[in-house]
Prior knowledge:
heterodimer, A: alpha+beta, 2 helices, 5 strands, about 25% strand, B: alpha+beta, 5-stranded antiparallel sheet, rod-shaped
Amino acid sequence: MMKSIMLSRSGLYLVEFVIVLFVLCIVSVIVFQLFIKGSQISADAYDLNIAVVRAESITEEVLASAGEDAILAERFDNANGGYVLYYDEKWNLTDADKCKYSALISVIQKDFMLLSDVSIKNSSTVLYSIHTERYLGMD
Amino acid sequence: MNRANKKTILQQPISTGGISILMVFTMLCLATFSVLSIGTAQAEMRLTQKNASSVADYYENEAESQRILSQIDGILKSGQTEGKTTEQMLQEISAIDSVTVEGKAYPRRVRVSVTNDGPVGVELELEITSLGSLKVIYSHMISKNNFTYGDQVQDLWKG
């Protein structure tokens, strides 16, 4: 009698263990999806943050150069009538073939105004862009 | 320990319920941490987007202030060729939106204040002499909560 009670208790334990494991698996799938989504949002925020800093820094360089081609050509690579900088996955400067992000810089002088457009892109989308103008003076 | 006691310990059944409690606790911890993680990531994204929009806003206002500066310089240049007096030119300048001409004595101070709906704006301070020459005194960022980022020092806590 005692032996049969003990057997049924261990069976009960096994059943409990299997049910708990099954529920844990289901909950884990949901929870890990949330963790992955959080990590993705965090990575996107980091990229946007760095894109803002890079765009701001390039814009200031363009404004400080007053649109002088010689200064800009020394700092940036020429591309399709504008300038470009390439970044790897850790946002370090790199070559065009190894790049993950790029900064496209357009500088135009029109009616004594310097028009600057800086766009930071990843392979498919524009992460951030800044347009600004600077009066160069009539003299 | 006698023989009877030893037998009782060996024959003690496996207790049920303990593993359930442990697993429920683990699941609650996982769920809490995952919700906290996604909440933190979303807050980080919101902060980044706010920063990105205020930077874009600042450069937009900067561009507008530079267009106004070009307009003011244009008025002074054309006024000089047409033989207008500096007062006439200043009247034209004060008619521009976001521009205020201050004081009566020369050199006259002209303030260009561009603040759109965004949190940050740009302020330019210009000086116009009696001969109609223009000089930019300073340009700085202004914000809606009166914080000024430029060549003006805020009141600091002195302990």
